Amino acid sequence: METSRRAFMLATAGAALAAGVNSAEAAEGTGLRLLTFERKDQPGARVGLAIAGDKVVDLVAAKKAGAALGFDPADMISLIAAGAPGLAQVRAVVAKPGETLALGDLRLHSPIPRPPRNIFAVGWNYLAHFNESETAQKAKQEYPAHPVFFSKASHSMNGPFDPIPFDPAVSTLIDWEGELAVVIGKGGRNIKEADAMGHVFGYSVINDTTARDVQAKKHGGQWFKGKSLDGHGPMGPWIVTADGLDPDKLHLQTRVNGVVKQDAKTTQMYFKIPRIIAELSAGLTLEPGDVIATGTPPGVGNARKPPEYLKPGDIMETEIEGIGIIRNTITQVA
Ligand code: ZN
Fold it and tell me: What's the 271 CA to ligand 1 centre distance in angstroms?
């Protein structure tokens, strides 16, 4: 375990030096790394695959060159909805990639740039984060018997290296919440725990960035608005398909200006992914491409003494072992 931890930290340091994007070498496993990107010479989002050596296979170009793809190669959700046959077609392209692009030359969008509906999210899914939460302490709440769900508006989705808007007229208490994102593949309703992992398409890194003052009591103590400001949900740098990752033992870190703020293992998740999917899908249909942010570990800024918040110029990095790093700069917009 110590060895893998050291390897993880080395990968982190190396990737932090890379300009703009994380090294593809930092991710492990055999899963596909599917990303949505834009070429500098041709506008418009397209789906690609990150392969060894920081190269990207452009699926739009592959289709033009004659690859048999039964989905829209400009639309990640179309690929996800195509299921196993779609992934098999992608693997066939990767086997003979032809021309590749340099990862560092591309602009990466969120793998799912415009989710058709809200991002689902789980509150208080790490006991230590529940314990540090003032709201929970004041209410003397018991740890929930069921996962606590909320959602983030679809425009909170943001690219893995894009700026996080900071508008002081709206919020000055912006906080970080690094989380493992689960991307749903096969949709369904009333999914059983035993079947749930068969509905997972893959995993990504998300930061459930939160405006604590908008979440606070003077705004009604609600979560939705404080979680839903435009661009306050950066995700990426890609989706690692489920066959390439064991989601239960991943090291997760959030860093601000290089200082570690959250450092945990997904093993500490109180409600595991099958339970989350089973409870969320009870009477609520999940669709291909739905994103579930699975909760944040302890170490958020709001719970620190004294509290810490993000300010313009700060660089927020969120990293999950086996997936990669997203890096966002807090940027004043007003
Ligand atoms: Zn969260």
Answer: 14
* Cα 123 to averaged position of ligand 1 atoms, centre (Å): 6
If you measure from the C-alpha of residue 88 to the centroid of ligand 1, how many angstroms do you get, rounded to a whole number? 33
Task: Say what the pLDDT of residue 307 is.
Answer: 96
Report the separation in Å between the CA atom of 121 and the middle of ligand 1, taken as the mean of its atom positions. Answer: 6
In sequence order, what DSSP letters do the residues of 264-300 get, joined into one string?
A: EEGGGBSS-HHHHHHHHTTTS-B-TT-EEE----S--
For the stretch 177-190, pLDDT in tens is: 999 999 999 999 99
Phi, psi of 293 (to 5 degrees): -85, 120
Q: 152 C-alpha to center of ligand 1: Å?
A: 10
CATH number of 119-332: 3.40.50.9100, 3.90.190.20, 3.90.850.10, 3.40.1280.10? 3.90.850.10
For residue range 292-304, what is the model confidence (pLDDT) as tens digits? 999 999 999 999 9
End-to-end CA distance of the chain: 46
Residue 260 · residue 176 · CB < 8 Å: no
How do the domains of the chain map onto residue ranges?
2-108, 119-332
Q: How many A from CA of 125 to the centre of ligand 1? A: 9
Q: Which helix (H) or strand (E) holds 256?
A: strand 251-256
**Check: CATH 2.30.30.230 for 2-108?**
yes
